[in-house]
Amino acid sequence: MDDGSRAMGVAVGGSGREVRLVEVPEGLPEERHLTVAEVPVPVPGPGEVLVRNRHFMVFAALRTLMGGTVRDAPLPPLLAGDTLFGPAIGEVVAASDAEGPQPGEQVLHMLGWREYAVVAREACVRLDGTLPDPVAHLNQGTAAYGALTRLAAIRPGDTVLVTGAAGAVGSLAGQIARLLGAGRVIGTTGSARKGERLVAEVGYDAAVLRGGDGPGSFAERLAGAAPDGVDVLLDNVGGEQLAAAVGAARQGARFALVGALSGQLAAGGGGGAPVAVDSYRLILKGVSLRGYAGTDHPEMGQEWTARFGEWLRSGAIRFPHTRIAGIDEAPRAFTDMVRGRHFGTVIVDV
């Protein structure tokens, strides 16, 4: 470290590891498309801190960013040679000055997928004990909570449908919907085992299997699970599941779109998720259909974290997540998540 840095237990000239994109995949990412590289520990400059990461989140949107083909994406593209990024929890080990986070403090930031990260101090969020477990800050409940309170406000007794219910967003969304007053909560997923876990572990009333993993068409299965129709949709998927939800909509239904996994995780997809829906039914049923963007609700992060902390401490909600040990396992963690092999949020313990 230079003489102006405030350091704690960091060796000058040391090295760390980070996960890089070797090449942009043409289909679904495979382990060979990622590599773990050894690099020198960076030195913080003015207004920066050096963080030793302890945990980081693996999320599907990274696949969309690979190659930079999606227009208007809120995050920068990932090209060959780039280091992956995403939400991370770490400990500050060096600071360039006495302002901002200091050595020993835990922070949340966006430069995961590496052991050491130099982060602008204003890009760090100090962890203040609002959540009982620091790892819970890597949840993806903000979008679900925001969509269900701002776009598709739940009314007592509503039937709520959550697509992609076994993922990071969906495994919290069903619980949030129930806590906000929903009368019946239905989730969609790709396997019978995950469907069982949705009902047994996170409070869904029913699970509807997508694709060819059940009798009849998806729309028919949905109609069986929601014979009186759907009042609220929290959509993480798009595609045929969104089209079927339109068919099941009740009068005045509110649809909030928060993800597009049907495009992001398609073998030949580049993030777009085109779908044909019955627009006449939208008109007849007076359905509102809106996309949720976190940038439109800057207050939501703090509000959700406070609410989440209260619910966790009272035992009203669970944080479903899968822990993967070691940064060397991160490439496999990502490819397994893309193929739907995990339940809840996927977290790598560095």
Give an overview of the whole structure.
Residues 27-348 form the Enoyl reductase (ER) domain. One of its GO terms (molecular function) is oxidoreductase activity. This is Enoyl reductase (ER) domain-containing protein. With 350 residues, the protein is of the alpha/beta class. The chain has 2 domains: 6-138 and 320-349, Medium-chain alcohol dehydrogenases, catalytic domain (Quinone Oxidoreductase, Chain A, domain 1); 141-295, Rossmann fold (3-Layer(aba) Sandwich). The protein has 10 helices and 16 strands. The protein has helices spanning 61-65, 141-151, 170-179, 192-201, 218-225, 239-248, 261-264, 279-285, 300-314, 330-338; strands spanning 6-7, 15-21, 34-40, 48-58, 88-95, 106-109, 116-120, 125-126, 159-162, 184-189, 206-209, 230-235, 249-257, 288-291, 321-325, 345-349. Strands 1, 4, 5, 6, 7, 8, 15 and 16 form an 8-stranded mixed β-sheet that branches. It has a 6-stranded parallel β-sheet with strand order 11-10-9-12-13-14, sandwiched between helices. Strands 2-3 form a two-stranded antiparallel sheet. The longest helix has 15 residues, at 300-314. The radius of gyration is 21 Å and the shape is globular. The mean pLDDT is 93.
